[in-house]
Amino acid sequence: MYFRRHKPHNRAMEWWSSDPRIAIRRAGDPARGSCVVYWMQRAQRAFENPALEAAIRAANELRLPVVVFFGLLRTHPVANLRHYIFLVEGLVDTARRLKHRGIGVAIRAVAGGGSARTFVKFCADVNAAMAVTDENPLRHSARWRKDTARFLRVPLLSVDADVIVPSVLLEREQYAARTIRPKIHALLPNYLKPVRNASPLVAWKPSAQAASLEPSMHLLRMVKVDRSVPVVSGIHGGTTRGLAALRRFVGRRLKGYASQRNRPELDATSQLSPYLHFGHLGPHTVAIAVMNADAPARDRAAFLEEVIVRRELAINFVRYNRDYDRLQGCEPWALKTLAAHARDRRSYLHTYRQLERAQTHDPLWNAAQTQMVRNGWMHGYLRMYWAKKILEWSRSPAEAFRTALRLNDRFELDGRDPNGFAGIAWAVGGKHDRAWGPQRPIYGMIRYMSLQNTSRKFNSKAYIARWAAD
Ligand SMILES: Cc1cc2nc3c(=O)[nH]c(=O)nc-3n(C[C@H](O)[C@H](O)[C@H](O)COP(=O)(O)OP(=O)(O)OC[C@H]3O[C@@H](n4cnc5c(N)ncnc54)[C@H](O)[C@@H]3O)c2cc1C
Q1: How many Å apart are CA 285 and CA 294, to the nearest integer?
Q2: 275 CA closest ligand 1 atom index
Q3: What is the pLDDT of residues 222-272, one digit of tens each?
Q4: Is the pTM of this model over 0.85?
Q5: What is the set of domains in the chain, with CATH numbers?
Q6: Looking at the chain, which terminus has fewer C-beta neighbours within 10 angstroms, N or C?
Q7: Are 184 and 315 in contact (CB under 8 A)?
């Protein structure tokens, strides 16, 4: 198919370059082509997804259909079966919603290193006029985008779909919540708006070139992943499930969130993090539901602080700090104080195996670890305590960082997320925090949490009884 008129394409070029959510990774003229391809990566949803909407908008300007490409990694260095089940459940739901909207879906099993090449080949097979993808600040994904832009012959746009304030507007790494908060709040009126679910003008017609793997749970047979971690029951992936969880939270637990969110025995938080991590829900959907809820202003504000300010601070950290997954990414004052205490005597040294099996001397820590292993989710208040104790019981802060990350990413359904890198950097290396006196063994000036104090702040006996390891 040959694209005849130039005016709509010029109009499209104008909005690409004027919207800060959109980065032009590869420029060029989408004058020829049969479709617009959207490479769905982090924003794995067909609902209120700004990247999909950008693809539809471009396709409508060009009078072309949209097809979504999804590369299912055959193997993964960290993710295991519990993550893959959640992901594929989401994919099945998303594929159903896409088909309903007249949008094509092509799922391909890919090797991690070959993702960009497979995508570029797909674009050639379907004669793409242009391609769109979504941003993910993690290193490997940034590399895929770079490789794709190098080899693709048509324009490539990437859309920052999983933040409310486009992360490019913050320009550099922000020091702490107190420095990013005023910047985010100043920009929110421009960006905290409902995302449309526009209709494509031209429906996709299935073709041999875009043949897809069947979006079903059988996809799990295609992957060769670690099956040693128990599968989580009672939580399922997908936008439909995520929206139901959001409705339950807003209807029943948002009221009281500000005062009860740090009480792990109550399950007072949203537990939406796995849906946000896999992009089954977007932050706009969650934030707007909470803003419009019939709950006290104090509770709504406390939740919005977490899902907007804290979450986007974590994304800012990963986007602008190249050492986001190691101790070196923390501030010089923190590295200095940890180094000064590196040789302090450790009262307990627990091996990785003991930690993984929740076999430490600390019943609260063991309960938190057990919650994570069984449920794929640990309460946020205990994540802080849990990681700080790993610092206390490891031979060095760098080893503690690695151990915490390994356990977190292996067992949390929401693992491998910017929030995890920032949370561990906060707990072990004082990231986004300040120095706390007096100096303590091992911690130096890093904020300390004791078993006694932490246990007093909530009904720790009830929590331990619930999660006591068998
Ligand atoms: C050591 C440590 C490790 C962590 N690992 C992860 C992780 O792997 N993945 C992950 O998503 N979060 C992680 N967090 C951040 C936070 O603990 C979880 O996002 C939160 O507990 C998830 O539960 P929820 O959805 O019920 O949160 P809610 O209290 O209901 O908050 C709603 C949403 O706001 C965001 N949010 C809440 N707290 C934070 C925070 N402190 N920082 C950034 N965003 C936040 C999350 O997206 C969350 O889903 C970690 C924190 C620490 C201290």
Answers
A1: 16
A2: 49
A3: 999 999 998 999 999 999 999 999 999 999 999 999 999 999 999 899 999
A4: yes
A5: 7-162 (3.40.50.620), 163-195+237-320 (1.25.40.80), 327-467 (1.10.579.10)
A6: C
A7: no
